[in-house]
Design goal:
106 residues; alpha+beta; 4-stranded antiparallel β-sheet; 4 strands; 28% strand
């Protein structure tokens, strides 16, 4: 499995609309992408304008497909001026749990 971890810093004046758009992208990913197993959005404990995204895909190619989906493209276009900083993106191979343990998020 391929993991994507993203730190998203939002301009405070756009927080609500950004989170609404983020939810739409997350729902689209889980609902419409067979190989997106998990898409979590976590609001930082100390900074309410900082979100942590944790996404799990079957493999890197599946994640690349995700970046071309209509819901992702819409999210990028809609939110690009609402970011306080560039996205901080890390990726890696998921080690635990093993690939055969994963079930699709609902």
């Amino acid at each position: 499995m391929f993991a994507v971890i993203v730190k998203v810093t939002i301009k405070p004046e756009h927080k609500k609309e950004f989170i609404d758009a983020m939810f739409d992208d997350a729902r689209g990913s889980v609902k419409n992408e067979a190989n997106c197993f998990l898409f979590n959005i976590v609001q930082d404990q100390d900074d309410p304008n900082l979100l942590h995204l944790y996404e799990v895909y079957k493999d890197e190619a599946t994640f690349e497909e995700h970046t071309k989906t209509p819901h992702f493209v819409l999210w990028v276009e809609t939110t690009k001026n609402w970011l306080a900083k560039p996205l901080d993106i890390s990726t890696g191979t998921h080690l635990f749990p093993s690939d055969d343990c994963w079930k699709k998020q609902r």
